[in-house]
């Protein structure tokens, strides 16, 4: 154990971390060699030396390629975090050299992409014009791993259910409800009263099964004695969903702030049926035991200030 501690503290190099991450991502020695611009024997030798020095088997060769052991998988998680932090340090230094005062990378869930983040970014830029902001839009299942790996500092959008054992801290901003929306040209969009039975044969846009809202939406169909749609598209992209509604005859569940934003622009129509059971908290997520950059703290403070006033 003492030798393991000594090796990690004084002998583990960046090239070892890069090797571990490449092996985990590519799972093939030949591809790793090409990626790192070295020979295949050099990759095998480096891995063997690393395993011998640590005293643990990190990867197994299988018919499905290189598979991490429990020890390798654990080390890869930390290797990704370290490399991500170094990448942020590089970006921060480049930004400072070019006159930018810090940078924050934000993950945007669909509920945040249209109204929440744009409003906060406008306020932040008024306060700190030279703070750089990078935005990555996606679903929770694509953004959360990047949060854990340190590539993203905060995620803004629909909050998951409280879990005291989670490694993610959540900060509540406001409650939003889902509404039914369609294109402004749709015949149902002109009616003051629409029943669920009228929606029975409509094409739908639904969130994917991995989305936090998929199960509540399916329960809403069952509550109104409607079969789950057979004519549907799965998407979490706000722009794609709005485009499909604008150019077709589909109906979609959308966050209220999103639907009403596009309704004010004349693009969408919000349908009358209320959905009281589809209310969800929108907020901020970040890692519990990971220090936030000054730029990330500034963004969080800006968001809190906007919604505490509202």
Automatic annotation (TrEMBL):
Fetch the InterPro entries from UniProt: HTH-type_LysR_regulators, LysR_HTH_N, LysR_subst-bd, WH-like_DNA-bd_sf, WH_DNA-bd_sf
Question: What's any one GO cellular component for it?
Answer: cytosol
List, in alphabetical order, the Gene Ontology terms for molecular function in this entry.
Answer: DNA binding; DNA-binding transcription factor activity
Pfam families, A to Z: HTH_1, LysR_substrate
Query: Locate the HTH lysR-type domain: which residues?
Result: 12-69
For this UniProt record, the keywords arranged alphabetically read as follows: DNA-binding, Transcription, Transcription regulation
| Family stated for the protein in its record | Belongs to the LysR transcriptional regulatory family.
PANTHER family hit by this protein = HTH-TYPE TRANSCRIPTIONAL REGULATOR YBHD, NITROGEN ASSIMILATION TRANSCRIPTIONAL ACTIVATOR-RELATED
Q: What is this protein called?
A: DNA-binding transcriptional LysR family regulator
Organism the protein comes from: Enterobacillus tribolii
